[in-house]
């Protein structure tokens, strides 16, 4: 079963052959929705990289993709490809599309969460729970339906702030009304200037750290939690401007000269954060980063307690706005140890087990001890090269949970375009038929290898690019496939069928036969073997044969 955005309110749906769903939104526009989990697989050179870009944009912003009107049969035009690339870059910069490559040493700690060693200020080693890319994008996706303030940086930090203590006071009330944050120790002077004065240096470590955090490290987009007790928060805001030193302070505290513009999004509430903060009370310092908390966790925690941020309620014009889908692209997904990387989360990525569904599963993560579920608007797109590993050898648990889209070579895309008389469609089709027989279909050559030739308008330049494709792509790949079994490579290239004509040799591989009698004389004792030895040598790429169009034409013309 596939899904569509809850906010679309589909009135008509249709299951397509490739596993996608189409639905009409509230204004009658038909939009195609992607599977939550899919893998694009195929041979080298079939355009998986670009199709990953297309699939990611389609999943992250289906309405935008629909507007491009890409022909499924012909594929994207040059203008459409540019639009997809631009959109992909914008979504990536916004954190809605993220990319990771699996490899043999990649593990759960990098993907979900793990411990990371850090050096404290007193040069001691401490271990901090660090979020992996999957947990990070899951957290970001989980809050995307709240219509959050655009100033919030979902990858930013969370800060604890105490304004003249946890109790009610005039300084705090002024700050919350004036959309600022302010702390004391005004005699230090402007902390945006160096060096630090004697008063600053006379302060203890906690005070110095608070001042440095406040003036040097808090950045625009970070969240600020103003506390009202050792465990609870009474206001949340987002840093909206740079640090400034105000000599007059605030009305009730003239020493509160260190100030930051803060957009207070919600206030006058009291929500306990002890459990979310690993059952730990807030520490004494006035200002410090809450490293155990992510922006998404804070926002979800407040939302679960009924705290609506000032810009969180959608306007009437937003009532049918698409939720923000997020996409995690996993390149070379078949090269990683899936059990090691996903761990217990392999079950949570199933659609029925995701947050908000009937069979939702929430589990406790091993390092942070926090509960975790996978949101319904997180799409996972994997790619795999079948020349590296067959689909048959993939982890069974992964195969059950992903839709697979095969991407095989399509010589027909060249539409029998000729370059110096060389038919690109027939050339690639013949090469692949021979590879299929001598090896298998999972090691055939992708059409992308010859697309630079196809797209080049100038025929002379196109022929140069064809030679480059053989030199840099096709021949090296054949060497890898056949482990330098040059006789098979010779058969793929059709050299055994190329006849000498007009004194020209169209074979790419030179064949030489040595007689054992000629090499070793009589009585060499090798009669149990063949009478001669055949050796093969690829002709140098500066050899004239590579400049002969007939050498490429005869790859396919003799066998048809």
From TrEMBL:
Pfam family for this entry, one: AAA_5
Positions of the ATPase dynein-related AAA domain: 322-402
Transmembrane annotation, as ranges: none
Family annotation (PANTHER family): 5-METHYLCYTOSINE-SPECIFIC RESTRICTION ENZYME B, TYPE IV METHYL-DIRECTED RESTRICTION ENZYME ECOKMCRB SUBUNIT
Protein name, as recorded: AAA family ATPase
